[in-house]
Structure formats: structure tokens, C-alpha cells
Design a protein that fits this description.
The protein has helices at residues 4-13, 74-84, 98-101, 104-110, 123-126, 208-219, 238-244, and strands at residues 40-47, 52-59, 64-68, 87-93, 116-119, 148-150, 155-158, 161-167, 176-180, 186-190, 193-194, 197-198, 227-230, 236-237. By secondary structure, the protein is α/β, with parallel strands linked by helices. It has one domain: 4-Layer Sandwich (Metallo-beta-lactamase, Chain A), CATH 3.60.15. Strand 1 and strand 2 (52-59) form a beta hairpin. It starts with a helix and ends in a 7-residue tail after the last helix. The chain binds zinc ion. The site of zinc ion has 4 residues, from loops.
Length: 251
Amino acid sequence: MRDWQPACFRALRETCTIYKGLTPGPDCQLNKRPLMSSKLNVHTLVSQPFAENTYVLWLQGRTDALVVDPGLEPDLILNFLRGEELIPAAILNTHGHADHIAGNHFLKEAYPNAPLIIGAGDVPMLADAELNLSAPFGLPITSPPADRTVREGDIVEAAGFRLEVLEIPGHSPGHVVFIWRDTPCLVLGGDVLFRGSIGRYDFPHGDGPLLMRGIREKLFTLPSDTVLYPGHGPVTTVGHEKRTNPYVGQE
Ligand SMILES: [Zn+2]
């Protein structure tokens, strides 16, 4: 049933530029040094054709995990989880765009007990292929319904993590980021802020000034060594983006 995906996506790959100014790739030095405490494991799975990052996070010695933004190549995620003998304790969506929710169905099918969690403002996108932007690409995708919706200040506790929810709309109306206030702080950021770029805001319901204000007020007020895991491209830090980001940086 999934065999149709790769050919379609190969055809799309040439024409898709979803994230302006973004140069994905593993060349970032930040990827090459250990950023986090040794108890944390983060594994990145990149789904084509949008080079979307799915993150699997788990704490050393545990078998329960978080899956963040399961994308368009769910077999990569399922094979990884099985290989590492990990069980998702929650499936988190930073927002409702198709490249971040396409794997929800397959994850819920395999792990029905893992709650699917998304920001309240993006709930309509789960069931609407026009809103989640998959229909315009000719590949209508929908997701199972959310088990839990979250808003600013909510706390998600799963797999030993305690994540704080912040709403940063502008790329999508109900975009949320998940913050783990560890040492250093960690942000699961979706399509808000990238290394050297920011999320597109020219989609329907996009809002550039709102997005930039959210980045400055909610992300740039976190400690400089806060590690940001974005929805596309390499990992970065709050300090690096504050200094150098051409859209929201301060220099
Ligand atoms: Zn998006």
C-alpha cells in the first residue's frame, strides 16, 4: 500500500522548496559534538521529499520514547523503534502540515496506546488535506484524531520527560514547540526557527510578523546554549540564531 509513495515523492522532490533559504545537510559542526547530557538519546530520521526531521527521544536505560513529527517515510521510524526495542509513550506533532503528520496513522496503528498530541489551533489540519497542504501537492493525507490537544503553558509528561508547551503561531495557526528544561535546555521546534532561516509564512493562515515576534519573545529569551531541534535541517542553538539568523538575528 505504501509503494506508491516513493515514486510520487521523487517526482515532487525537484519542485518542492518549502523552507526558504534553508540548506539542509549534515555539515553543521553543531551536529558533531555532544550537546546534551549523556542520559539523553536523540535520533533523527529524515523523510523525503521535504527533508522533514522526525525525532525519537529517549532516556538512557529506558525503553519508552517520544516520537516527534512522524513524517512521510514512516517505515524508517517503525524500523528504528523496533531495532532499538523502543515503545512510543507519546506521539507529538509540532504542527499540522502534512510532512509532519503523515506518519501519525502508521504510528498509531503500530502503537495504539501512545497518545497523539498536537496544539489545539492545528487540530483542523489533521482531518483536512487542503488545510494540511497535502491536497495541493496531489497526495491527500489525513491523520487519526488527536488524543490530547495542548495550549500555552501545558505540560506533557511521558517517557521520563517533562515538556512545557509554548504556542508560536505564524507558520501555522496552532504551531507549538516543546521545551525540556534540562541542562542545557532543549526545544523541539518544528517549523518556527531553523539554522539560518525561519518557517515560511506565505501559506494560507501564515503571519510573518507574528512568527518573528514569537521567536524573539519565546525562543530568544531562553538560555543561549538552548539546543533547538528543528523540523528541517541541522540542529542549532538559541545563541547561534540570535547572533547570526538573517531573519530574526540581532546583529
Ligand atoms: Zn510546516
